[in-house]
Specification:
The complex is a heterodimer of chains A (about 130) and B (about 375). Chain A is α+β, with helices and mostly antiparallel strands and about 130 residues long. In chain A, about 20% of the residues lie in helices and about 25% in strands. In chain A, strands 1, 2, 3, 4, 5 and 6 form a six-stranded mixed beta sheet that branches. With about 375 residues, chain B is of the alpha+beta class. Chain B is elongated, with a radius of gyration of 32 Å. In chain B, the strands form three sheets. A six-stranded antiparallel beta sheet of chain B has the order 6-7-8-11-12-13. A five-stranded antiparallel beta sheet of chain B has the order 3-4-2-1-5. Chain B is built from 14 helices and 13 strands. Chain B starts with a helix and ends in a 30-residue tail after the last helix. Chain B has three domains: about 1-65, no CATH class; about 75-235, no CATH class; about 250-370, no CATH class. Classes of the chains: A alpha+beta (about 130), B alpha+beta (about 375). The interface of A and B includes residues 29, 34, 120, 121 and 124 of A.
C-alpha cells in the first residue's frame, strides 16, 4: 500500500480481527519509529489516538526508544498524527493491514507518522 | 617524438644522449666523408668526450636529445601520454586523488553515519537500537551490490607492503632508474624505458601523498575488505542511494554533496477537494551553504516558482541553519519533505500557484495533468 491511497481501502476479514496489533509511531520522515504490540482484545473499541498516547507514555523504554519518543513529541508540537496519508481518527482497525513475520506469524500493522506542519508558500488568500 | 618512440627505427644511446640515424643523402654523405677523414672528427666543445656523429654497424647517427631532458619535459612534450602514464601508475597503487581522501572525509562520515541512519530501515523486528559505524557499513553492503572490481581494489588498498617499500626507497633515495645501456636500440624499447622512468618520477613527485596514504591505509588495514570496497565504490561514484535516501556529488564545489530523500508519490487536494497525484521527486540539501531545501528534478508544485530543475522550496517561517551538522541536514530535509507532501492547503491556496485554476490574468503553472 502506498501513501497515495487516501481512502481507507483496508479490508480485514473477521478472522484477522483476532490478530495482535503492531503499532509503529514514526517521527517525521524517519524510516523507523517506536513499536508497540497490542494483544487481541486489548485494542478493539479504543481510538487509535488513545493507543498512540498509551504507546508514547510507556515506561521502561530503551535509550534509543526514548530518543524516538522525544523526536515524536518534538514533531507533535503543533503537529499531528498521520496514517495512510490522512489525519488519524477512529479505531486502529480502520488503518491496519495484515502482515506476517518471517516465521509466518500474522499480525495487523498500523504505521503512524508524527508530522510537524510546514506551511509552505508566501501567498495566502485568507 | 611520439612517432619516433612508437617506431621500430634504430636509435643509439650513448652517454645518456639519444642519437638519431642520419638521413641518407648525397650531400650529407659527402660531409660525413670529410668529417670521418682521419683526425677530422668534430669535437664537442662543451663535452669533449661526446661525439656529434657516431658510426655503428656501418650506419651514422647524430646526437639529438639528452635522455634526462626528455624525461623532465615529457609532461610538456606528450601531455596526453604523460597523463595516462601518471594515472596508470597512481591506479596501480590505488593512489588516485579521491581514494584516500574519502576515508578522512568528515562530510561524508556525517552523511553516512549520522544522517543516513535516520532515513533508512536499520532494524528487523521490534527492537530499536543504534547501529555502530561498522554495523552501518554492513547494512550498506547488504543493500548495495558493489561491483567486483572494487573488491579487488580493496585488496590492493589494504596491502600496504608495496607502498611501504616505495616510500622506504624514496626516503633512502634508492628508488631510481638506470639509463639504457650504450648501443643500438629500437624506438619502442626506448619508449618502454621512458615510460618506466616517467612512472618512477611520478612516484617521486607523490612522496608526500604516499606517506599520507600509507598512514591512512595502516589505520584501515584491519577493516573488513567489503567495507573498504564500499568506500572505494563511493570514492569512485561519489553517490549512493538506499531506501530512497541518498547523496550525490555537488559538481560546483569540490568535496561537497547534495543529500536527498525521495518523496514517493503523494496526493494533494485543491479548493474543491479534488485530488492531484504528484510524481516522486528528490528533496535535497547541499552540504555547502545555503542550507535550504530544493527539488533536484524538473518539477512543478504550488511551492515551486517555475517548472524546472533545482528549485528552492518556498517555506513559511523556515530559518535555514548556518552550519553543516547532521541534525541540521535531517531537519532541513524533513521540513522540505513535509512542505511538499503536507504543506499545501487547498482552502488557503497557499504558495506561488493554486492547484485549481483561478481566473487570473497572469499565467501560472497548470496542474490539470496531475488530476485523478
Amino acid at each position: 500500500m502506498t501513501d497515495t491511497e487516501v481512502k481507507k481501502t483496508l479490508e480485514i476479514d473477521e478472522a484477522e480481527k483476532l490478530l495482535p496489533l503492531v503499532l509503529e509511531i514514526i517521527p517525521g520522515h524517519a524510516a523507523e519509529g517506536l513499536i508497540d504490540i497490542y494483544e487481541p482484545g486489548s485494542y478493539e473499541g479504543k481510538s487509535l489516538r488513545k493507543l498512540c498516547d498509551r504507546t508514547l507514555n510507556k515506561k521502561n523504554l530503551s535509550i534509543e526508544e526514548q530518543l524516538i519518543v522525544e523526536d515524536v513529541n518534538r514533531q507533535l508540537k503543533g503537529g499531528k498524527f498521520l496514517s495512510r496519508g490522512q489525519e488519524i481518527e477512529g479505531t486502529a482497525l480502520e488503518y491496519a493491514v495484515s502482515e506476517q513475520t518471517e516465521a509466518g506469524e500474522k499480525y495487523l500493522y498500523v504505521p503512524i507518522r508524527a508530522i510537524k506542519p510546514q506551511e509552505g508558500g508566501i501567498r495566502t488568500d485568507d | 617524438m611520439k612517432r619516433l618512440l612508437d617506431s621500430d627505427l634504430e636509435l643509439v644511446v650513448e652517454s645518456n644522449f639519444i642519437y638519431l640515424p642520419l638521413l641518407f643523402d648525397l650531400e650529407i654523405e659527402k660531409e660525413i666523408q670529410t668529417i670521418f677523414r682521419p683526425g677530422k672528427q668534430i669535437e664537442n666543445s662543451v663535452q669533449p668526450d661526446l661525439k656529434t656523429i657516431i658510426k655503428l654497424k656501418e650506419k651514422y647517427f647524430i646526437k639529438a636529445l639528452n635522455l634526462y631532458s626528455l624525461l623532465e619535459n615529457y609532461e610538456v612534450i606528450n601531455a596526453y601520454d604523460y597523463k595516462r602514464l601518471r594515472n596508470d601508475c597512481l591506479l596501480k597503487y590505488q593512489l588516485t586523488g579521491e581514494v584516500d581522501g574519502i576515508f578522512l572525509d568528515e562530510t561524508l562520515r556525517i552523511i553516512l553515519f549520522q544522517v543516513m541512519p535516520h532515513f533508512i530501515r536499520k532494524n528487523r523486528g521490534l527492537i530499536r537500537k543504534k547501529l555502530s559505524d561498522e554495523e552501518i557499513m554492513d547494512l550498506i553492503n547488504k543493500k548495495i551490490n558493489i561491483p567486483g572490481k572494487y573488491h579487488k581494489n580493496a585488496e590492493t588498498f589494504q596491502d600496504v607492503e608495496p607502498l611501504r617499500k616505495i616510500l622506504e626507497s624514496l626516503e633512502n633515495q634508492t628508488h631510481s632508474f638506470k639509463p639504457p645501456e650504450n648501443g643500438i636500440l629500437t624506438g619502442r624499447k626506448l619508449r618502454d624505458w621512458v615510460h618506466d622512468a616517467v612512472q618512477v618520477n611520478v612516484l617521486k613527485g607523490e612522496h608526500l601523498r604516499i606517506a599520507k596514504a600509507l598512514k591512512t591505509r595502516k589505520q584501515f588495514s584491519q577493516a573488513k575488505p567489503e567495507h573498504i570496497a564500499t568506500l572505494l565504490y563511493i570514492a569512485d561514484t561519489r553517490a549512493l542511494e538506499i531506501d530512497g535516501f541518498g547523496f550525490t556529488r555537488n559538481n560546483s564545489y569540490k568535496g561537497e554533496y547534495f543529500v536527498y530523500k525521495r518523496t514517493k508519490e503523494y496526493v494533494l487536494k485543491d479548493y474543491y477537494a479534488r485530488s492531484y497525484l504528484f510524481p516522486e521527486c528528490r528533496v535535497a540539501v547541499s552540504t555547502y551553504s545555503p542550507y535550504k531545501p530544493f527539488v533536484i528534478e524538473k518539477y512543478k508544485h504550488p511551492f515551486l516558482l517555475g517548472h524546472k530543475t533545482g528549485q528552492e522550496i518556498c517555506m513559511k517561517d523556515f530559518v535555514p541553519p548556518n552550519e553543516f551538522k547532521a541534525e541540521n541536514v535531517i531537519r532541513t530535509l524533513e521540513e522540505g519533505l513535509t512542505a511538499m507532501r503536507y504543506g499545501y492547503n487547498g482552502r488557503k491556496r497557499n504558495g506561488y500557484h493554486s492547484l485549481d485554476k483561478m481566473w487570473v490574468h497572469i499565467p501560472t503553472i497548470d496542474f490539470e495533468d496531475y488530476r485523478i
